[in-house]
Amino acid sequence: MNFAIPFRCVMVAAVLGVAAACGSMTDAGDASVDLRGSWRYSGEQTTGEQVTYDGALAVTTRSGATFGGSITVNEQNARGTVRSIAGVVGGTVYSNGIIDMDVALDAATLRHVGTIAGDTLRGNWTTSDGLRSGSFRAVRTLP
Asked: Please, which residues have CB within 8 angstroms of residue 12's CB and are 6 or more apart in sequence?
């Protein structure tokens, strides 16, 4: 008998484990963390075509542990073509220091999950369809 665990099962378990670490639906979040201010945002797409993002994230609203704002980035593809795109952001800071933020850019929503340490956010993102993913970093420039 072959008792090997299929790769697909291992991947599903890994994804579920990461999602569980982000906090649960009963986690009220951490209202003491205030992300309002200006942030220098950078990111890269690590699946498919190589794409980099560089720009500004502005967190302008806060209600308890939730926050919102806007983002403007220059997107550069592997051919060197650059275009400026803008969108909105919204998310939650969980009590374990995890941030979960949706960034709506162009026609895609990029779910960002990461950590906050001082004035730095860092983590990974994936599109809602799961076809593209990458990493990001944001450093606060002004409170």
From this structure: none
